[in-house]
Amino acid sequence: MKYHNFDNFTALTEALSQQWLDVIQTTPDGSSFALAGGSTPAPVYQRLDQLLSNIDAHNPIKLVATDERWVPDQDTQSNEGLFRRCLSGSAAGKRWQLVSLKNASSTPEVATEAISVRLNEQLPQAFSAVLLGMGADGHIASLFPGAPTQHDDLACLAAVHPQTRQSRMSLSLPRLLNTKRIWLVITGAEKRQVLEQAIENNLPVASLLREAGCTIDVFWCP
Ligand code: 6PG
């Protein structure tokens, strides 16, 4: 784990989006990214959108959510909807393609196998990077405390938010770990302490810390 500390989120956003753009520009054959939802990363997505809209290169980019709420894209709770709103400029420029974690099934439980097939077909290689957030309970993606981190050998699994009971689809831990880079974006002293005590408290993020095959770059600001 390597910390990158910033005075504020604007500085963090600039550093991470530039690093992200660099990965895109140095992978002409195509890059793929798994992206967190929630309230933290939106400014990073908006800044990357600006940067992407200002470059000529059309290196293929595939995006997938690390997890999605089982709601329509129009719903403000939708992570895929968040990506479409934040990355609208580059979407218009057809700079990226989204691989959805959703389908028309009534529940994520029903959809899991079909989505896993889709993920394996459309995203067979290691991600170029996974951008994760973390909850105050130490969850990453929708891998919540005390809940499974994978279902059989599928690339995704259904989950339920422990407080809101909201249905979710999450990439499995093994699929999240099949990546060349991990960017963990957290803010505030509380989350930093949760991360630093994650292994002794056996929180979901601890699995990432224990099993990651690459450095975990932690982007942090107060
Ligand atoms: C989601 C995320 C989730 C998020 C954490 C942190 O869909 O909610 O993917 O894992 O990263 O819950 O959320 P905040 O950034 O809102 O604190």
From TrEMBL:
Family the entry assigns: Belongs to the glucosamine/galactosamine-6-phosphate isomerase family. 6-phosphogluconolactonase subfamily.
Show the InterPro entries listed in the entry.
6-phosphogluconolactonase_DevB (IPR005900), 6PGL (IPR039104), Glc/Gal-6P_isomerase (IPR006148), NagB/RpiA_transferase-like (IPR037171)
- Identify this protein by name: 6-phosphogluconolactonase
Domain of life, per UniProt, equals Bacteria
Q: Name one GO molecular function term.
A: 6-phosphogluconolactonase activity
- Locate the Glucosamine/galactosamine-6-phosphate isomerase domain: which residues? 12-210
Q: Which spans of this chain does the record mark as coiled coil?
A: none
Gene3D superfamilies with a match to the protein in the record: 3.40.50.1360
Q: Does Nucleotide-binding appear among the keywords?
A: no
Any idea of its EC number?
Answer: 3.1.1.31
Which pathway, metabolic or otherwise, does it act in? Carbohydrate degradation; pentose phosphate pathway; D-ribulose 5-phosphate from D-glucose 6-phosphate (oxidative stage): step 2/3
Q: What role does it play? A: Hydrolysis of 6-phosphogluconolactone to 6-phosphogluconate.
**Keywords assigned by UniProt, alphabetized:** Hydrolase
A biological process (GO) of this protein is: carbohydrate metabolic process
Enumerate the Pfam families for this protein. Answer: Glucosamine_iso (PF01182)
